[in-house]
Amino acid sequence: MTHCDAILSQALKFVSRHEFESLANRHHSGRSFRTATRWSQFVTMAMAQLFGRISLRDIAGNMSAQAHRLYHLGSAKLTRSNLACMNENKPYSLYEALFGKLLQQCQHLTPGHRFRFKNTLYSLDASTIDLCLSVFPWADFRTTKETIKLHVGRNHSGYLPGFTVITEGKTTDIEIGHTLAFPTGCIVAMDRGYIDYEWFNQLSNKGVYFVTRQKSNACYKVVAHHSVQKNKELISDQAIMFTGNHVVKKCPIPLRCIVYRDQETNKQYTFLTNHFKLAVRTIADVYKARWQVELFFKWIKQNLKIKSFVGTSKNAVMTQTWIALCVYLLIAFIKFQSKIHISKQQIVRLLQLNLFEKRDLMALLRGDPHIDRYPPDNQPILF
């Protein structure tokens, strides 16, 4: 008789318990609880993400209903006060480090991007998550608004959040851009919020390519013209040097300026890049693919709980957000390992409906018919 663990137990096996406990010891602060552990906190908050629970009372009630199943998950039942205390006081840095570990696991399974070039491609952008002014005063942004900001560099190989930073809302995009260490040879697509000519010069010196939109008021001179096929899309391809007194000191290198017209919208775009070998159409497609990072923000806001929070302190908000991102990577890991062509949203829905079903996870994703291998109560087992 084949035995299967619960679906949730199989999903959590992708998180190495040994590595988790090692990280928990490294990111420990304050005294320990008698029965509650960081693993119990993670399991509880991950369940809350998948079940869509929106309050501490709701989460505690759900855990009480499933108390008889927690032993097989290696978790203990947490009371509402215990969970609130852990979210408030136990460092969220544990889940930030766990996110990095899970990301490394996923990267070994990801397929390549759809472009012909072999360079790693990232789409860089940021999205704000609105908070209540009176409840979250620490997340200062404007006089009438409080937010936190999620900065993501999405890797197009598997569409994973390769670089992720969470800050308060007043942190600008380019501040975080300066802190990111992109690998040599990669291509980074970004919008005009990241324009900093000194940073562009630094990226070029490190062998990092970028694609962005040119500012309309930029002052420059054309130093070379590149031939383009005359059609309705490709207008010009030039090498330029900036002429502004301050800009020329920050960026004394030639850059490539491309003027392109989108046939679908008939809009004209001016792209700026330091990559001189890619085709003009490829540069335009790379910038268009930047929309993938916007789809990532849309997905996590629609499918995970990062718009309403069960705690009010900075640590509680960061804990919930990092655990949500860890759950996203768990879903991505399941998708890559299963090699089944279903969307991440379909995986989330299947997990939500079958979290405590005792059946094979991969069979569930394949859509295999469920066979009840256990006889009904009071029915004798025939040998």
State the low-pLDDT regions, or none. none
**SSE sequence, one letter per element:** HHHHHHEEEEHEHEEEHEEHHHHH
Structural class by secondary-structure content: alpha+beta
Q: Overall 3D geometry?
A: elongated
The main sheet comes to:
10 strands, mixed
Task: Give the amount of beta strand, in percent.
Answer: 15-25%
Q: Please report the total strand number as a whole number.
A: 10
In helices, the fraction of residues equals: 25-40%
Mean pLDDT: 88
Radius of gyration, in angstroms, nearest whole number: 25 Å
The termini sit apart by 12 Å
SS field, number of helical segments: 14
Question: How does this structure look, described?
Answer:
The chain has 383 residues and is α+β, with helices and mostly antiparallel strands. The chain is 39% helix and 19% strand. It has 14 helices and 10 strands. Helix 5 (80-89) packs across helix 12 (314-338). The longest helix is centred in the last third of the chain and has 25 residues, at 314-338.
Question: Which characteristics define this entry?
Answer:
383 residues; alpha+beta; 14 helices; elongated
Q: Summarize this, please?
A:
39% of the residues lie in helices and 19% in strands. It has 383 residues and is α+β, with helices and mostly antiparallel strands. Among the domains are: 7-98 and 314-366, no CATH class; 199-289, no CATH class.
Layout of helices and strands:
Layout: H1 7-12, H2 17-26, H3 38-51, H4 56-65, H5 80-89, H6 93-107, E1 121-131, E2 140-142, E3 145-155, E4 160-168, H7 173-179, E5 187-190, H8 197-205, E6 209-213, E7 220-225, E8 234-242, H9 245-250, E9 255-261, E10 268-273, H10 280-288, H11 291-303, H12 314-338, H13 344-354, H14 361-366
Parallel strand pairs: 1-5, 5-6
Antiparallel strand pairs: 1-3, 2-3, 3-4, 6-10, 7-8, 8-9, 9-10
Helix pairs in contact: 2-6, 3-12, 5-12, 6-12
